[in-house]
Each structure stands twice: as structure tokens, then as C-alpha cells.
Amino acid sequence: MVATPIGNLGDISPRAVETLNAVELIAAEDTRHSQRLLSHLGVATHMQAYHEHNEEYQAERLVARLQQGDSIALISDAGTPLVSDPGYRLVEQAHQHGIKVVPIPGPCAAISAMSVAGLATDRFSFEGFPPAKQAARLGNLGLLKEETRTMVFYISCHRILETLKDMRTVFGEKRLATFAREVTKTYETIRKATLDELCEWVAGDDMQRKGEIVLVVAGSVKDKSAHPLRDEILAVLVDELPVKQAAKIASRITGINKNELYEAALKLKNKDD
Ligand code: SAM
Fold first, then answer.
1. What is the pLDDT of residue 224?
2. Among 4, 45, 156, 194, which has the minimal tally of Cβ within 10 Å of its Cβ?
3. Do 155 and 181 share a domain, yes or no?
4. Rounded to whole angstroms, how far apart are CA atoms 107 and 214?
């Protein structure tokens, strides 16, 4: 599995070039597109198309060749194969037949965008392309509303504005996100701002609706005073115990700050008296 540049041809690794030269066949998502890269690298290895429309059939044929002892490199139009790109069937079948699969790591738009996003990267969730239709997209984003990990989306430039607006509706206007466009290319643009600011900026600048875009969105920050049974738990404890003790026990049960619960318990007690 050979990663290729996402824009800047200088990002191809020496090992990738070596591999593309050494294999018997290169399976490519779009052979015409990849021909430009191979010509630039001086690689003359034969290519065959492997894309989402012939993936099932081609995977079988490629596996048959691999079983005969040939080695094959898979490349996509840009970046790392299988990351929102074809390759899954081939890798799955190769494993099934006990064929060794080797990664030749390199560029990936999601990882590149994350490395400059300035958002938490210790835990993240790769979400690929959100649905094209708005109703489905809103449903999809709705499921991610409480996601606490940083989320990475690939967005078609034709849908960037409407998608940002939907994210603003679902995640809230203050949620932070990093817009990464044309990464490693001439018009590379990286901007971190709130979803509201990004909506305004993209709406007012046509240029930001062109090219290739990754959006890295901050995860939801859990409201520390939120617990579905906070008031019920506190009410029962306040009935039976002094306010301070009620707050302490409620804090142990809910994880909510003790002082905050003390204030709430006092109010409850005063109301009861
Ligand atoms: N396999 C690729 C990878 O490793 O990143 C991704 C392929 S996916 C079909 C194409 C999407 O990746 C684009 O629509 C865009 O969201 C993102 N992308 C690819 N190249 C990019 C770049 N140079 N700058 C920003 N986003 C890019």
C-alpha cells in the first residue's frame, strides 16, 4: 500500500519510489491521473485500474497474480490508499489468502490537517465525507454532537459552506474548528476559528470554496455540572442529611464539583423550609 503526495510531489518517500520501480504491477485508482506522477518519478512499471467500480472483480484477479508470486503496489489518486479511497477489498482478500501486505507510509490529508490544527490530537475520530444530502448530513452530525474526541472530516468544496452551517447548527456557533485547504499546494490555507467565524469567512470569500478541504472539529466539552439525575439525587440527600454532607455524597455519586452542589443543596433546603 503505497502513499503518494496530496499536492507537493516532493512529499513522495524514497521507499515509495523504490517500491513503485520494483513491483511487477501498479494498481492505480485512475491510471491517467497517476501517469503524471510516474512520469515525474521516471517509473515505467505497468499500471492497471483498480477503482470503486471494479474493486470486487479486480481484487480477485490481483490476488491470483500475487499467489503466482508477483508483487503489486496499490496507489490512489493522492495520499494513503484506503483512507476514503479504494483498496479495502484487495487488502481483505490478501489477508484471507495469507498474502503479506506491506504499508509504505506517507502523505495523508487527514493527518496533515490534524498536525497543524491546534486541536487535541491525543484522541480523534476520522469521519470521512459527511452525507451530501442535508437531511442525512444533519442526522449524521447529530450523532456526533456529544463526541468528545477531535473529529476529522473530508469535505467537498461544493458543500463546504452548507456543511459548515449545518455544523454550526448542530455543534453550536462557538465550537472551534480548523479549516485546512489545499494542503501542501500553492494556495495552502489553514485557519482555526469558531464555526460561526468560519461560516462568515467562507461565505464572504469564493476562494475558500475551491480546491480540497479537510475540517478538523474540536470535540464536545462535557458540561461539568451536567448529570441527568443531579437534582433528584440532591433532593433525596438533602431531605435526610445536613447540606454539607448531602453535597459531599452527591459529588461522589455524580462527579460534579462539591461547592457547586453545596450551593444547589442550600437553595433546595431553603425552598423546603
Ligand atoms: N486517501 C486520501 C488521503 O490519504 O488523504 C484522501 C482521498 S479522498 C477521496 C479526497 C479528500 O481528501 C478531498 O476531498 C479532501 O477532503 C482531502 N484532501 C486530499 N488532498 C487534500 C489537500 N491537499 N488539502 C486538503 N484536503 C485534501
1. 63
2. 156
3. yes
4. 14
Q: Give the number of the atom of ligand 1 that is nearest the alpha carbon of residue 157.
A: 14
Tell me whether residue 127 is in a domain: yes
pLDDT value at residue 68 = 96
Q: How far is CA 86 from CA 66, 130, 225, 227, 268, in A?
A: 18, 17, 45, 43, 60
Which residues of the chain fall below pLDDT 70?
Answer: 224, 272-273
Residue 189 near ligand 1, beta carbon < 6 Å:
no
> What pLDDT sits at residue 76?
97
Instruction: Retrieve residue 169's grid coordinates.
Output: 447548527
Same domain? For 116 and 204 the reply is yes
Q: Does 213 lie in the same domain as 232?
A: no
For residue 222, the model assigns a pLDDT of: 74
* Domain-terminating residue out of 96, 124, 143: 96
Q: Does 29 sit in the ligand 1 pocket, CB within 6 Å?
A: no
Q: Relative to the CA of 154, which ligand 1 atom is closest?
A: 16
Any atom of ligand 1 within 6 Å of the Cβ of 183: yes
pLDDT of residue 37: 97
Q: Residue 155 has what pLDDT?
A: 98
Q: Is residue 22 situated within a structural domain?
A: yes
Verify whether ligand 1 is closer than 6 Å to residue 151 (CB atom).
no
CA dist 235 → 28, 65, 258, 260, 272 (Å): 65, 71, 15, 14, 10
- Expressed in angstroms and rounded, the spacing between residue 29 Cα and the centre of ligand 1 is 14
How many residues belong to the chain? 273
Q: Which of 200, 217, 234 is the last residue of a domain?
A: 217
Is residue 210 domain-shared with residue 155, that is, in the same domain?
A: yes
User: Would the CB of 51 count as within 6 Å of ligand 1?
Assistant: no
Tell me the CATH number at 142: 3.30.950.10
| Candidate of 158, 213, 215 to mutate for ligand 1, largest count of ligand atoms within 8 Å of Cβ | 213
